[in-house]
Write a structure and sequence with these properties.
The protein has 369 residues and is of the alpha+beta class. It has two domains: 184 residues, no CATH class; 162 residues, 2-Layer Sandwich (Alpha-Beta Plaits), CATH 3.30.70.270. It is built from twelve helices and eight strands. A six-stranded mixed beta sheet has the order 2-3-1-6-7-8, sandwiched between helices. The protein has a two-stranded antiparallel ribbon with strand order 4-5. A hairpin with a 7-residue loop joins strand 7 and strand 8.
């Protein structure tokens, strides 16, 4: 089984699309709309003074649309559509000003802005797909603008423009790839237990809350299991913390090897682990944990000259029979775990009936230390 490290933080990262979170992209887009709309309003007035009424009318209409977008983006659920619409129109405008017969050579520098804006607002994949066609079109227009490229001077101009565009795109793409990798590593570190590589308590709580929400929608159930290594302190006290770390790592391997792909396991802290078993009945969860308990009890670790054997106790609570809320399930599973330890450890304990205070505990093999 591969432990899932998806969490609320991981989901937010995946949905952010770029280095900016959605709330930051929204703020940036509103700022761009406000600046662009204000600029076009000024240009519209200047065009009217110069007698270009049709140009002034177009700029005024676009300015009004941008101001509408500035207000609408505050709460619009269609942020991505607004971004695509804005960038497509803006990049098309860049190409249009390059097509004017008397266009200045400096107008073509706007081609270099295309990947910057696209990657910043859309992320690596979508930014690449949007910016490359417009950059290629800008390169073709620049080539036609130069006319007959029959001198070293013009060839140098063409190569400079081409090289700058390619390097700008390559550098931004490489930066975005490295940024995504670094950010993902930080998320994994924040959501993982450094010793075992399992999910940590925060990740487990987020996953449990999400599992409850999903099961409420689908009507399926799941089991929450709290597992604790018996007499773990004795291992640390007699053999040292390195031996204790070895035991924890081995337990983590055993859990991941036995559980299903739909299950989730985390180290909650110390010698305590949490498991979420999806789409399993109460009897099935008990049988699975009983098999896992026996597997742990039968394992023997070699640490120097010592042979280390440990056992584990399990407490099970099933949703929704034993509670609808995460806190209730934790309380029931923890109480079952305490009940099993009080009865001799190395046991799997579960509530006797839904909503009752009784527990059902089956005796297994003797505790091996």
């Amino acid at each position: 089984m591969t432990t899932s490290h998806h969490s609320d933080l991981g989901t937010a990262l995946e949905q952010s699309r770029s280095g900016l979170r959605d709330n930051h992209r929204r703020s940036l887009m509103r700022l761009l709309f406000l600046i662009t709309g204000s600029s076009l309003l000024v240009f519209s007035g200047l065009q009217a003074v110069n007698g270009f009424w049709w140009v002034a009318g177009i700029e005024l209409a676009v300015s009004a649309l941008l101001f509408f977008g500035f207000v609408r983006l505050y709460s619009s659920p269609h942020l991505q559509r607004w971004i695509y619409g804005y960038l497509t129109v803006l990049f098309s405008f860049f190409l249009a000003i390059m097509l004017f017969p008397d266009a200045s050579v400096s107008a073509f520098v706007w081609v270099l802005m295309m990947p910057v804006l696209a990657y910043l607002l859309l992320g690596k994949r979508e930014g690449l797909l949007l910016s490359v066609p417009f950059m290629l079109a800008g390169g073709v227009i620049y080539y036609l603008h130069l006319g007959q490229v029959d001198s070293a001077y013009l060839v140098i101009d063409l190569l400079n423009m081409t090289l700058c565009g390619v390097l700008m795109l390559a550098f931004i793409h490489l930066y975005e790839v490295r940024r995504e990798e670094a950010e993902q590593r930080l998320v994994d570190m924040a959501q993982s237990d450094f010793l075992t590589g399992l999910a940590n308590r925060s990740n487990f709580q987020s996953t449990l809350a999400r599992t409850i929400a999903e099961c409420e929608r689908s009507g399926s159930g799941f089991a929450l299991v709290i597992m604790d290594i018996d007499h773990f302190k004795l291992v640390n006290d007699t053999l040292g913390h390195d031996a204790g770390d070895l035991v924890l790592k081995d337990i983590a391997v055993s859990l991941e090897a036995r559980l299903r792909g739909t299950d989730f396991v985390a180290r909650l802290g110390g010698e305590e682990f949490g498991l979420i078993l999806r789409d399993v009945k109460s009897a099935g969860a008990y049988e699975l944990m009983e098999e896992l308990r026996q597997r742990i009890a039968d394992r023997e670790l070699v640490y120097g000259d010592a042979r280390v054997r440990v056992t584990a106790s399990f407490g099970i609570a099933h949703w929704p029979e034993h509670g609808w809320q995460a806190e209730t399930l934790f309380r029931v599973a923890d109480r079952c775990l305490y009940n099993g330890k009080s009865a001799g450890r190395n046991r799997v304990a579960r509530p006797l009936t839904a909503g009752s205070g009784g527990f059902h505990s089956d005796t297994a093999a003797q505790c091996v230390r």
